[in-house]
Amino acid sequence: MKRLTSTLSKWSKQEYGDIFTKVKEFEETIRKSEKEIMTNNTDALRQKLHQMNATYIRYLKLEEIILKQKTQLQWFQEGDANTKYFHALMRGRRRRLFLHKICIENEVWIQGKEQIAQAACDYYQHQFTGQNDIIDERILQYIPTIITPDQNEMLQAIPNIDELRKVVFAMNPYSAAGPMALGVNFIRQGFFPSTRGLKQGDPLSPALFILGAEVLIRMLNSLHQIPNYKGFFMGPKGPQINHLRFADDVIIFASTDRHSLKLIMETLGEYEHTSGQLINKSKSHFMVPDNTSQDIINNIQECINISQKCSPTTYLGCPLYIGRQKIIYYSHLVEKVSKKVCGWQARILSFGGRITLTKHAIQYIPIHIMAAISPPNTTTKYIEAIIADFFWGRDQDKKKYHWASLDTMSLPCTEGGVGMRRLTDICTTLQYKQWWTFRSKNSLWSQFLKSKYCQRAHPVAKEVDNGQSLIWKYMMRNKIKVEEHIGWTINSESCSFWWDDWLGVGALANYTTGISSLNNATIAHFLTNGKWNERKLRQQWPSQWPEVVNLIEHVVHEVRVISIRWKTPSISNYKLNTDGSALNNPGKIGEGGILRDSNGITVYAFAIPLGEGTNNQAEVQAASYGLN
C-alpha cells in the first residue's frame, strides 16, 4: 500500500503538477492578460485569454474535488454508493415475500413453485368467472351528462381478448405488483379473461374506487336539495360540509336530526344495492362531542345501527380527536419511524449513507401529519432521538456516544453541520404555510375557519380565546410574522381597507388606532369609477391624520376598460354563448346560455340549476347542454 501510494503521488504530480500552486499561477497570468487586452485588444490576445480561462476552470474543478475527498464532504451532500446495503435490503425483502407453501380449501397445504402458481391462477380465475348481476341504473341520474354520444359510443366499445392481452403484457414486469397484479414468487403466471363484472370481495384498483365513490359522493351531495334535510354547517353563511373522502375512506358529517340520519342511511343502502360494495359496519363508527346527552346518542344508534367510538380516530394517518391534544395520540407516528429505522441495515451504512437516508426518508415520514397539525414537542423529541441513535449507531445493545448535538447537525454543510432539519423548524414552517393558505386561497378549509372564527371580524384582528382549536391558536400565534411578507394588490378592490397591506408599508391598522366603521370596509368602498373618492376618505378619517390621507391619495389605482363586442355569425349559421358558475366552488352550480342567428335575434335561451359541483363542471355542462 505504501508503494502504491507513492507511485500514485508521483503520477499525479507528473500528470497534473501541484494543482494548488497552478491555480494561483493561472490567476496571476489571467490578471496580466486582462490588463494587456485593455491596452492592446487583438483577436490573438482574446483567444489566448479564453484558452487560459478554460484551463483555469479545469484546475479549479480538480482543486474542488481534492478538497472534497480530503474532507469527505461529498458523503454528507450525496451519500455513498453502498451496493452492499442495497443488496442486503433486496435479499431481506425477497425472503419476506417468498411463498414457501399456501393453504387452500379443506386445510390442504401446497408446496412447490409450479403448484403454488397454479393454485393462485385457479383461485383468481374462479373469482372472475360467474354470472353478471343486473345493475340498477337509477343512481346514474346523479351523474350529469358531460360527454357526447359519439364519445360514449367509443367508450362502450368492448376490446377483444387480444387487445387486453397485449396491454396487460406490455406493463412493466419488474413493478411491485407485476403486470397482472398476480406475481407468484416473482414470476408471471397464467392469463385468463374475466367473464363477469365486479362484486363484493374483488380486489379493486384505486381508479375503480374513485369511479365508484364519485357516484356515492354525488348522491350524498344531492341530499342538500331535499327541503327538510338538515345537514352540518358552521353558521347560516358557512359552507355546508357533507363529507370528506379519500378512495374508500369516507367521513360523513351530519346533524342529530332523526329524519336526516335516515335519509343518509337510505342513500348508503341504495349505493350498496346498486354497486355491490358493502359498508363494513364493524369498522364503522360515529363520534359526538363529550357533552352530548345519552338520549341523543341512543337515538343516533337506533337510526344508523352503528356503534359509537370515543376520540381519537385516525383518518389518512392523522389523529382526529375532541378536546385537548395528548402525546398518546401520536404514538403510531413514533412507532412508524422506529420500525422504518429498525428495518435498515445501519451497521452496513457509512455516515454519509445514514445522513442521506435520514434527510430524504426518515424526516419525510411525519411530514403529511405535520402539514395538517403540529404534534406535541415531546413527540418530535422522541422522533429526533430515534434519528440521532440511527445516525451515530449502536454497539451491540448500547448507544454510541453522540459527538455532536442536533442543533449542530442541523447547520448547513458549509457551516460545520450536515444539513439535517429539526422537526420543530419543519412544524413552524408548515404553520406559516397554513396561515398563507388560509389568507390566499378560498378553499373549503378556509371557508370553514372563516365561518367558525371570523364571522364578525377580520382574521388579522382576531385574538386567541379559550375553547378554540389548536390549529387556529398556532395560526393566531404566527400571523403577525407571516403578514409582514404578504402584500395585496387593489385591482380586484376586494382586499380589506384597514387590515390588509395594500400600501406596501404595512396595514393601516399598524399606524393608527382603530376605527370601528372601517373594520369590514374594502377598497371598493372608497373608489368611484376607478378613482379615490376624497369625500368619503375625509369623512372617515379625522383631520389630525392628513399624512395618512396623503399617503393613500398617492396610491394609483389603474383601471383598464376593455371593449367587448358580440360578433354576428355568418349567414345561415348560429352562435351559442354559455356560462356556468358555482357558489363557493364547490357548491351549488347553475348554467345558462343563449343561441342567436346571423341577425343577432335570440332563437333560444336557458338558465338551469344543476345541484352541487365546481365551476369547471358548471362550464362543461352548460356547453354540453347548449350543444345538445
Automatic annotation (TrEMBL):
<feature type="domain" description="RNase H type-1">
    <location>
        <begin position="570"/>
        <end position="628"/>
    </location>
</feature>
<dbReference type="InterPro" id="IPR002156">
    <property type="entry name" value="RNaseH_domain"/>
</dbReference>
<protein>
    <recommendedName>
        <fullName>Reverse transcriptase domain-containing protein</fullName>
    </recommendedName>
</protein>
<dbReference type="InterPro" id="IPR036397">
    <property type="entry name" value="RNaseH_sf"/>
</dbReference>
<feature type="domain" description="Reverse transcriptase">
    <location>
        <begin position="1"/>
        <end position="320"/>
    </location>
</feature>
<dbReference type="InterPro" id="IPR044730">
    <property type="entry name" value="RNase_H-like_dom_plant"/>
</dbReference>
<dbReference type="Pfam" id="PF00078">
    <property type="entry name" value="RVT_1"/>
</dbReference>
<dbReference type="GO" id="GO:0003676">
    <property type="term" value="F:nucleic acid binding"/>
</dbReference>
<dbReference type="GO" id="GO:0004523">
    <property type="term" value="F:RNA-DNA hybrid ribonuclease activity"/>
</dbReference>
<dbReference type="InterPro" id="IPR000477">
    <property type="entry name" value="RT_dom"/>
</dbReference>
<dbReference type="InterPro" id="IPR012337">
    <property type="entry name" value="RNaseH-like_sf"/>
</dbReference>
